[in-house]
Design brief:
The protein has five helices and six strands; from the N terminus they run H-E-E-E-E-E-E-H-H-H-H. By secondary structure, the protein is of the alpha+beta class.
Length: about 325
């Protein structure tokens, strides 16, 4: 009987201690929950490696853990992850959340960063609360991590790699390889020719340099000549132009005077042509006739003597 009473007493003490431990653990958990703050993060990507209890760090400093992971009821395209972080963690405007892998274990954690000095904290406002905090707690925006971005873009990357491989295969077929070999041979031949003609090319470049230098000197001399010509035209050309204008004016005046004189002489010229010219023509005809007569007399005196002018010439004698 006494042994049975001892067992009952020991059992009662063990149950009391167990109950005390459970109450203490619950109390400490409630106390710890009172010091933490909850936030929601909505990921539109795979959250592989993330689980309930996964760590949450802020710029590498452990700051909390993942409390819940589930598909968002309002839009299954998003995964809602609720986290708890220590009170005093700087969750402010500009803070973003990223999923990063931890080593090669396949386990992931949530990394927070982007704290800015003086920025206001992320809270649920009184106005428009439902749209800013759809599930009653503030929302931290996401930023794609390097691994998540790579996994999301992996299908497109593989497709592009496949297309690139196919195009390279088409480009490097036997025909194109033969063409490329011919091009390389031609380039090698051209390089050898250029190398052999190196001295000639150098001499040509030297002559070209000299020609360019002489052209520059000639251009400079032409510029000086143009400046001299401009000075001459400005200094001596203006007086010459003035004298030329005066000469042209005088010539114009002389021509006007001559034109006036001819106009005034036109009536006399007409009378001279009408009356005097016929008489002068008769006089010239008489003078020509008299000249012929004098010529005939002169020839007769020359041939027959002066006596021929006084009588008839003697008849010739005829012998039988």
């Amino acid at each position: 009987m006494e042994t049975r009473s001892n067992h009952v007493l020991v059992g009662s003490v063990v149950l009391a201690l167990l109950l005390a431990v459970i109450v203490a653990a619950f109390w400490f958990s409630r106390l710890s929950d009172g010091e933490d703050e909850e936030y929601d993060i909505f990921f539109k990507q795979s959250v592989t490696g993330l689980a309930k209890g996964s760590g949450v760090s802020y710029s590498g400093v452990p700051s909390g853990q993942v409390k819940h992971i589930e598909l968002w009821r309002r839009d299954p395209n998003f995964v809602r992850v609720r986290i708890t972080v220590k009170r005093g963690t700087p969750i402010v405007q500009g803070t973003t959340a990223t999923i990063q892998g931890v080593g090669f274990t396949g386990v992931s954690e949530i990394v927070l960063d982007g704290a800015m000095k003086g920025a206001p904290p992320i809270i649920c406002p009184e106005e428009n609360r439902e749209s800013v905090c759809p599930d009653g707690v503030p929302v931290i925006p996401t930023k794609p991590g390097a691994l998540g971005e790579l996994l999301n873009n992996a299908p497109q990357l593989l497709e592009r790699l496949t297309t690139l491989t196919e195009r390279l295969t088409e480009l490097l077929n036997d025909k194109n390889q033969a063409s490329l070999a011919g091009i390389l041979r031609n380039v090698e031949s051209l390089t050898a020719s250029l190398s052999a003609r190196g001295p000639e090319i150098a001499a040509t470049l030297a002559e070209t340099r000299i020609t360019i230098q002489k052209a520059g000197q000639a251009a400079e001399e032409i510029g000086k000549m143009v400046e001299t010509t401009n000075g001459l035209l400005n200094d001596e050309g203006k007086p010459l132009l003035k004298d030329l204008r005066s000469t042209i004016q005088s010539a114009n005046n002389s021509l006007n005077a001559l034109d006036k004189t001819i106009t005034e002489a036109q009536p006399g010229v007409r009378a001279f042509s009408r009356d005097t010219m016929p008489e002068m023509n008769l006089l010239v005809r008489d003078l020509r006739q008299m000249s012929r007569s004098l010529k005939a007399v002169s020839e007769k005196i020359d041939q027959q003597g002066a006596g021929s002018l006084l009588g008839d010439p003697p008849l010739p004698d005829y012998k039988r």
